Hints:
single chain, 8 helices, Arc Repressor Mutant, subunit A, 26% helix, six-stranded antiparallel β-sheet
Amino acid sequence: MQHVELSEGKSIDRNSPLPYYFQLKELLVEEVESGRWQPKQQVPSESELCEHFGVSRTVVRQAINNLVQDGLLYRQKGKGTFVAKPKIMESLAQNLSGFYEDMVDRGLKPVTKVLEQTKVEANRKVAEYLGLSLGDPVIKIDRLRFINDEPLVLVTTYLPYEICPSLLEEDLNHQSLYALLEEKYGLKIVHGRRTLEAMAADEYEARLLKVKVGAPLMLLNSVSYLGDGRPIEYFNALHRGDRSKFAVTLIRVRNRSKTTMDDSFISDLRDTGLVSP
């Protein structure tokens, strides 16, 4: 097992008003974010950190605990503490894109495994999101998304069957759903709404995502709309909490009730997902 080394010249400032544990945490964060400490490398033991920085074991434990909670480090029982893999950044609200397009834009190679692609009757929740009646036919697509051979997202997508029935025959293992809808079916998604909440993995989700039952997941719900206002897609995506983080674009609009905004600005806001359709 490869161990990391501590950089020379790094020390605790005894005259600083900042707590020792916070200073130590920031020094260790710098080691990780600079790339000097690589994923899966073992970090120095508590006693080594105590000796190197001249602080108590309590200080070291608090700093390490915070880094574990932040996802920069992880513990293995009986083995020690290790550098975690960096979380994969995804976009929550900016130019509306799908997972495949988002990952490719970031220089990553997404892989998709379609678990199910079938026609079902819309339940109450799906019908409400897609503007359908209860029992109307919808296309349901279950997919497991991978990055670097590691399962990252379990997503279930619903689309109105009447709008694109031949989608049932498409191979979605090797192409972007959004690109397919636009280029082949002429269905351009122009705006949407997304919400994010935390939940725990059940047995099925844990098995597919390679995490423990009860592990933290982030549930992303999304409804996407065509230019004429029709909802075209509803999906819920379960992201591994230990491997994902989201970037959110915020826009401040002053005196919104008194300000006249032109159509192009409204459109730009809708593209971010921050303005309801």
